[in-house]
């Protein structure tokens, strides 16, 4: 796309990010949990006077909660479990499993995440922000390929309507060409 635009200077492109609040809900909630754990880990590092570790690529890939283009951070398993346990303990969840004394019972990390996900807000504003970040990532990638930003426009993000569309959703950005 960048080469085609470079070869045709009369063309301008509008980039429109899109998101689907229904299809991407669970992935967004999981990514929100992960980003909260990473933020807690960074906060702990800074409080201890240690510079936070550099981001490492994650095999699973987050769903856009982190800044677009930034590699996802992978926490060591022990630290992930410790931070997840603290988040679970600090989150008000009405149906937490309890022991005989009424204290929150220790449960496996997968179960903690399953109980935390519904507590992670996914509203239209959050999904518009996700769509906007997708559009920005594409625009920034085109600028990095040598296109001037005066030929690239960012349109308002769009949300997929939930009514009746049965086609499978894939995250996307729409590119539209215009002439000067």
In short:
The protein is an alpha/beta fold and 180 residues long. The protein has helices at 2-7, 25-47, 77-90, 109-116, 124-144; strands at 11-19, 152-154, 158-159, 172-179.
Q: What do these coordinates show?
A:
The protein is an alpha/beta fold. Helices cover 40% and strands 12% of the residues. It is built from 5 helices and 4 strands. Strands 1, 2, 3 and 4 form a 4-stranded mixed sheet that branches. The protein is elongated and about 70 Å long.
Secondary structure topology:
Elements lengths: L1 H6 L3 E9 L5 H23 L29 H14 L18 H8 L7 H21 L7 E3 L3 E2 L12 E8 L1
Parallel strand pairs: 1-2, 1-3
Antiparallel strand pairs: 1-4
Order of helices and strands: HEHHHHEEE
- Tertiary shape: elongated
Structural class: alpha/beta
Number of helices: 5
User: Could you tell me how far the N terminus lies from the C terminus, measured between alpha carbons in angstroms?
Assistant: 18 Å
Mean pLDDT level:
85
The low-pLDDT segments are 56-69
Number of strands: 4
Q: What proportion of the residues form beta strands (DSSP E)?
A: 5-15%
Keywords, separated by commas or semicolons:
single chain; 180 residues; alpha/beta; 4-stranded mixed sheet; 5 helices; elongated
